[in-house]
Amino acid sequence: MGCDGGTIPKRHELVKGPKKVEKVDKNAELAAKWKYCALSQEKLKRPIVACELGRLYNKDAIIEYLLDKSAERPNTEVVAHIRSIKDVKELNLTDNPAWEGESHNIKGDCYEDMHCAMFICPVVGLEMNGKHKFCYLQTCGCVFSERALKEVKTEICHKCGDPFQEDDIVVLNGSKEEVEKLQKALEERRLKAKSAKKSKKSKDAKSSKPDDSTGNLLKNPETKPASNAASTNGNHSDAAGPSTSGESSKAVKTLTGPVTGSKRSIQDMKDKSETYKSLFTSHSSAKRTKDQISNWVTHTPYHF
After folding, report:
1. Which burial class, exposed, middle or buried, applies to 84 when counting CB atoms under 10 A from its CB (0-12, 13-18, 19+)?
2. DSSP secondary-structure letter at 272?
């Protein structure tokens, strides 16, 4: 079969060599990164967010992922570092006036520029299509081209005026080396935040513990510290002293509280007069004699 009719086969048809590596179209690769969500693979639409590694997502897709992480998704490893909505930043993008949308070429009868992007740099005017490097600021979320940040060096955002530092600049859809650098910076930032949180908890625990002196006063209100006892003795000796001594004695009383161990009945107090004691029913003058005490008489009249 075959090779009839005078056909001459060539060498590559008879000998099987190594397969050629299929090359990915660069335009398709750039469009997948800059026009589609990295998680849901849907077209990017506002609101658009970016993670700390520089990947672009639709905010709705991130919220759905955080609400249900157990659902099966094709690109879950891309968002493994995102723990909450705080790990992403909503981008403040500048619209491209030359962008007509995708609805103008529904019939396919006109030329469609694949390099035309929806957003541009507000300073230089470069289109955000992947041919030029773009960055965003973690402080405000504004997006600029790398050329604009290098040519116009400033510590204030060109668009909103918020201050920023060099560490706040994140490259969007960077190379492997840039993504690895951002990954290391992310891990260091999280370790610092974790250590700061632990130190804050230890400080709060130390400040919440009361001192030994106040703890002893709360447990034993009858015991007084030596300094307070000395101050009270000084107040008793100097009856006509200044007003500060009286205030210190009041403070000592409020600290120590009322003494509950020295309770005595009024009848046992010897320094009281007899007239004062006679006011109470327990005094001998208030007791009745046998003549004054009468028996109880009950009368139950019956009327027939």
Report:
1. exposed
2. S
Structure tokens at 199: 């130190």
Give the SS3 label for residue 103. Answer: helix
- Per-residue confidence (pLDDT) for residue 272, from 0 to 100: 57
What does the DSSP 8-state code read for residue 41?
-
What tokens does 72 get?
A: 């099966």
How many residues belong to the chain?
304
Report in angstroms the alpha-carbon separations of 289 from 35, 265, 286: 113, 25, 10
Strand partners, 94: 120
CA 159 to centroid of chain Cα atoms: 28
d(CA 88, CA 48): 10
Query: In terms of pTM, does the model score above 0.70?
Result: no
State both tokens at 7.
């056909």
39 vs 11, residue with greater confidence: 39
pLDDT in tens, 99-129: 887 666 666 666 666 778 899 999 999 999 8
As a whole number of angstroms, the distance between CA 211 and CA 207 comes to 10
Q: Which of 8-22, 201-215, 245-259 has the highest mean pLDDT?
A: 8-22
